[in-house]
Amino acid sequence: MKRILLSLGLIATFLFALACERKGGPGAGGQTGTIVIGYYGDLSGRTSNFGQSTKAGVEMAADEINKAGGIDGRQIQILSEDDEGRPEKAATVVTKLIDQDRVVALLGEVASGNTLAAAPKAQAAKVPMISPSSTNPAVTQVGDYISRVCFIDPFQGAVMAQFAANTLKAKKAAIMLDFNSPYSRGLTEFFEASFKKLGGTIVDKQSYTQGDRDYKGQLTAIRSKNPDVIYVPGYYGEVGVIAKQAKQLDIKAPMLGGDGWDSTQLWDLGGDALNGDFISNHYSVDDPSPAIQKFVADYKARNGNVPDALAALGYDAMKVLADAIKRAGTTEGPKLKDAIAATKGFVGVTGTISLDKDRNAVKPAVVLKLQDKKYIYQETIYPEGMTAPVSAPATTPATSSTSPAAAPASPLTKGDKPAPPAKVASPAAATKKAAATPQ
Amino acid sequence: MDTFVQQLINGLTIGAIYALIALGYTMVYGILRLINFAHGDIYMVGAFVGYFLAFQLGFAVGPSLLGLSVVLIGSMIAAALVGMAIERFAYRPIRKYARMTTLITAIGVSLLIENLFVAKLGAAPRAFPQLLQERSYTLFGNAAISKSQILIFAVSVALMLLLQWVIFKTKVGTAMRAVSFNLNSAKLMGINTDFIISFTFALGSALAAAGGVLTAQYNPQIDPLMGIITGLKAFVAAVLGGIGNIPGAVLGGLLIGIAETFVVGYGQNVGVPTTFRDAVAFAILILVLLFRPTGLLGSTVQEKV
Predict the structure, then answer these.
(1) Is residue B102 a part of any domain in this protein?
(2) Are A380 and A364 in contact (CB under 8 A)?
């Protein structure tokens, strides 16, 4: 008797839960009322600076849209989930956002490995997903519901190879990569190919894994090969420590990196050991264009710190999505994904965003120099077939001129820059920290 | 040649940290025949106490020798108290039961500490403030030694000598040795064994905390799970040297550190990827257990029935 009662009770509970489920979340695929958008990112794990910045950018954009009356009168609501920076968790929270919260679209992740884990879920459920800043090419190859508002690694890797070979006049490069990260492996591959094409040689390639605590073994091996530059396409948590330990080993070759370095915590870890290093990134806060300066000022007023590139991309991703919803006139997945893919010439903070046939944004990259907790603008490098718009950071005081000139042998068109800014003086030697030798 | 010397210095630096932690494993094992799996987490607790001390006492603003000493000693004292508390509340009540019970409790305590820290502080790594003005000295050619490496060597050698003195020259050390021979006989001789066990935990935990603060000067990234792999490797080091044997723990620590660095530095030349560094420590453990179960310096004592 007791058992029957218990089973009945269980069945009743189950049915009740099902009934609740049926009603659906606030989004529920309706064409009126609040538009519910899911955001997922690393809010507490090893790359939490990434997730927090992106979230702040997304929320700021959503608030601006809501204050201006929403999209055709409908307000936006952002539901955030923490994936702790783990791919398996990313897949879980995205499933939750889709099945339980019934979001109409997804924004996230930063780390390509996490986006790659979550993207198949969105694709299968026909929920459009825009990644603000995952640069690995494989991300949008998951399917036609996945797109992004940033450039991809073949371009980013080539940008740094160009900068190393042409501006720094480096001949020998060593690479230190994060073995388990698709982002790092992708950048390594493309940097290597471009650098070799430009006449350079890769003298050493060492690897580490996220969470390693000691990098001196690899760095000592690299030092013995005497490279002009060291390419470290990793994330800030490891890179800061690598820079510090490289300084302890008295390595003077500058380190080059990608957008994975961009985080305030980088400076806490690496300190002045980072001075003289260079990264490729999506935008520069020093860019004098009014749109960027307004964004920087608004973000500062809202969050109290300077927005990094991830915040800017989060902001742009939300704005691109809102624009697509407006154009589609609906939040139905199939129509919305077509509207996102049709994005052309959208003027964002991180440049003019046009999606190509693979739903990747075609945008220029900037090269920044790290100096005393600041990212100093060096130059802008444009993808093939793209010219500098008038509002591009061509007028930044730090640089001399950046008028685009086609370089036929290369997949890129680099801003023509005869005299590098004073900060990169003596590029031939490509040494940094000359004054940092034992005092 | 200078690359080889450099790799040796690098290996000895992390080896010295492993040795400091391995000492705690080996002392507790020597006295209680217990593998205290929470010991790696004490190392993490030490680093975090140092982190908060540095910020609370205002030493985080810049490098200072005073700040470094206060943070180092403060975190050693705090970790010693944590170690004693763990022993008092987790291990003492179940000491009379089978050894497996204590072992499983130790794993439980380890998970408890880790997850408590994750819950309270988050899993994101934090940057430990720089308390030592970093600078590197060229030895010859390209071989250089940094101030933080010198600090690690100096402090760990000083602490090991101090430990040696405590164990062999003081009354409490004599009592510790007596307890390690036979707990019950020691009790019959009038030794307060509870106090001695508590003292051993305090000593081991203080050494692990010193390891935590020293590593944080070398590698400023600390997180609540930093003790897992480092603790396991220190445990391997203790087994390699012969668990229960104090010079063995130091030797084992240094060997593991050097082996690991050489895998990273030279492994690629012989087809071993650098990512195998952690696998090597455990491969060594398996080999030692196969061919010399008592470790390099461990003695073969026949157990009497």
Answers:
(1) yes
(2) yes
